Amino acid sequence: MRRFVATSLAMVLLTTATTTAFAGASGKPLVIPVVYYKLPNGLKVVISEDHNAPVVTVAVYYNVGFRLEPKGRTGFAHLFEHMMFQGSANVKKFEHAKYVEANGGSLNGHTDFDYTNYFQTLPSNRVELGLWLESDRMRSLDISEENLKNQQNVVSEEVRVNVLNQPYQLFEWISLWENSFTNWNNAHNGYGELAEINAATIEDVRSFFKTYYAPNNAVLTVVGDVDVNDVKKMVEKHFAGISTQPAPTRADLTEPPQTKEKRVSQTDKLANLPALATGYHLPPQNSPDFPAMALLVQILQTGESSRWYQRLVKEKELTLDLSGGLNYFGNEFDYTGPMIMTTRATYKPGHTADEVLREMDAVVADIVSQGVTDKELANAKVQYRSNFYSQLEGSQGKAHLLSALALFRDDPQQINSLLTPFENVTAAQIKAAAAKYLVATNRTVIDRVPEKGAKQ
Amino acid sequence: MKSTLAIITLALLVTPALAQQKVPPAPGPARPLNLPKITEKKLSNGLTVVLAPLANVPKVSAILTFRAATTASDRQAHPGIAQIAASVANEGTDTRTSKQLKEELRSIGGSISLGSDTDATTMSGSSLSEFSTRLFELMSDVAQHPSFPETEVKLAQENTIQQIRAGRADAGFLVNERFQKAVFGDHPYSFVVPDEKSISALTRADLRAFVSKFYIPNTSHLIVVGDIDVDKTFADIEKAFGSWKSGTAPPDENPPVPKRDKRQIYFVNRPGSIQSAIYIGNVSIPRKDKDYFALRTADTIYGSSFYSRLTRNIRESKGYTYSPFSSSNTRLKTGAFLAGAFVRNEVTGPTLLEIFYELDRMRVLPVTDEELNAAKEFSTGNFSVELASQFGLAGRINTIYTYDLDKNFINDFRPKIEALTTADIQKAAARYFDTYHAAIVIVGDWDKVKDQVTPFGDVTIYDAEGNIVTKS
């Protein structure tokens, strides 16, 4: 089932890039052309030609996610995302969707920890339509009481369908973050409490728009079967006249180091089986430990050859499944604040969370004492590269990575050299990272069991 | 001089730009489609092989489809056998343990997964294209020599039973299961998941017998899309799959398609629900039916695009729901048109009213030219996007073989969509949006919403396990 204008709930384990130009059967190395510049009003612009198919993705990424929403207004960044489809000076309520679809395209938006994005994929000869639509709402969003009330209802239903009426209620995201973090900006429920979503006022919407939805707080990315020079002229025409705003003061996202293991027990009104979630704090992205940690995540819990999957699901037959990754919603590059590695497993009735944890710890202890094999590390790197290519297959995937690199690093050209630090990771670094970060004092554990007792 | 000229030119370009444009820009000239060349060949053992080069990334994507449906004839004796066979087939072969298989896959940046539905069992595989030869070897090994180790069979049986129990807590699972049963009745398409006894009763011998009957090359097709050289890839595939022995497929069941004789409510009681999960629909048509294009376009206008009538009404105007939808869901033997929404308890009745109102409006009145033109653009534009990805194109080619469609389906898509008239849409809606005989399936809290539901028809109430609790 589609989910429109959604906080996406899928865990996407997308990874990294490469300096080495690995060529396929066609002999063509994968090099992504990138043109990057800024308009005088501060808007970052990324253009990448891709002539594989007559399509184009036009995306705008704003440098604000739910970490920065106001206190007392959980869920507001996402509610605001919905308001961006409610019309602007020259586009009536919901007509953004009409224009895009009637021109052969599709569209969506997504609110994440540190960004909110809007994108449309269109036949490439309609690229200017996408630019016009994005510029109209960046410049002149139309905000009305009636539309706010309407979208408060819609978002409340979204929270009900994806969280409140679901078994487990996304505890591996919402509860795990609430318990792992101490800084409100990181810890609070980004999907939002219903009462706070419905308490938002028209003034909240106006002020958020003015503060964060300015050209100097955004990236515009165009990827597809277009001519760079044509697109540059269109960007100038539609975006250059939008006014700069004062740079927003950004909340302090720093998180005090965790010193003691946190254990939480919960009951679930709807679930039939117990489940466990763990979160370990990760080093920051610019830490020398980060690439090793990213490969360790891959070795531990990505795919059916991973160590935790093999131990928990296959050898010990304790859990039905195992999922998780380095960034609950995205990849290594599309966030900026503090992050935890998450893991979730549904375990079998008759067993306990402690049994599951004991096995997870035994796997880690083995890596800490014996390290990983050269073959295991080499395979993990191959899988990494393969997953990275999958992300770059379509214009939308490329636009996503380019936008994140422009937004958070001011350097989308890095797309062609991202893999280097990951390719260079050694087995000794993996071993050291496991010893340093995968310790009980650095983690939070939630055990969630059915209120009515598991059916045997 | 030169630089002055450049500045003037720039100024001319910039000046009108600063004003906000009031009307949408006109499209530029259409760009060429450049679809990959699709080549079909047959191996001597009867395996149909279809190749399409698409070098957008250095990867290769493959789909191997067996005529091993959840509706296959073993369904009667062993319900669920196709699903369990699919889940254990890549857990070990005659020469590789499950773990060896997964490790080899990781070493080529690859994955193999299997799944079965009411028409087929499908194996999807992908890897870096530099390792495509090894991907084909592994896929062939899983297709020809799955060993079904006792421990893996037992684990899959236990886990499937637990996963189904976990699923029964989920309103989405329950509403789909009851809908398929309500619409398809005695037809094999009503099957969703087996009961626990049937799963437990399956043996390794049953599974081996099943795959030897159904995983055979002469009724299967392999679609490969990616960064490939067609001649070399065909030779690799011949080498990997050439030794696969053909067989005689058991005759397929083809019972008559059910016809509903009344509107009826099927209510799955889920005490504590704060929303009602609603599916409304009826039997439609097979994918190859001549009405397919009219039905899918009616569906686009009704509920399967974002700017659809249903979304504008119950989301953007009334705020009842987040993600209303519809689907024409056409398959090999028949299909089921479906409209649905998940809504808070208080608006359950009003939502039913609007879903029916919008369905009936399309049956009684023609859509506007503007709506039809938008739907045509939507379908053809998004079709191009779908064909631009390896699994998108492979999946679309796969439907041609699985649903026995015309081989020109991809090239005919645009002209067939463009030929549709508003009369075609109304005719399709009148026929397949059959509200008068619709199945109405709701998963929710009966005590909370019963007064809103009963005005719409007779009700049968089920529990989450599928037992009838009461009949009105």
What does this structure look like?
- The complex is a heterodimer of chains A (456) and B (472).
- Chain A has 456 residues and is of the alpha+beta class.
- Chain A folds into two domains: 205 residues, Cytochrome Bc1 Complex, Chain A, domain 1 (2-Layer Sandwich); 189 residues, 2-Layer Sandwich (Cytochrome Bc1 Complex, Chain A, domain 1), CATH 3.30.830.
- Chain A is built from 16 helices and eleven strands.
- The N terminus of chain A is likely disordered.
- Chain B has 17 helices and 13 strands.
- In chain B, the strands form two sheets. Chain B has a seven-stranded mixed sheet with strand order 9-10-8-11-7-12-13, sandwiched between helices. Chain B has a six-stranded mixed sheet with strand order 1-2-6-3-5-4, with helices on both faces.
- With 472 residues, chain B is an alpha+beta fold.
- In chain B, helix 11 runs antiparallel to helix 12 and helix 12 crosses helix 16.
- Classes of the chains: A alpha+beta (456), B alpha+beta (472).
Structural class of chain A: alpha+beta
Order of strands side by side in the largest beta sheet of chain A?
A: 1-2-6-3-5-4
Mean pLDDT of chain B: 94
Strand content of chain B: 15-25%
> The biggest beta sheet of chain B, please?
7 strands, mixed
E-strand count of chain A: 11
Assign the CATH class of the largest domain in chain B.
Alpha Beta
Q: Main β-sheet of chain A, in a few words?
A: 6 strands, mixed
Might you state the CATH topology name of the largest domain in chain A? Cytochrome Bc1 Complex, Chain A, domain 1
Order of helices and strands of chain A: EEEHHEEHHHHHHEHEEHHEEHHHHHE
Any idea how many domains of chain B?
2
Radius of gyration of chain B over alpha carbons?
25 Å
* Number of contiguous helices of chain A: 16
Q: Whole-Å distance between the termini of chain A?
A: 31 Å
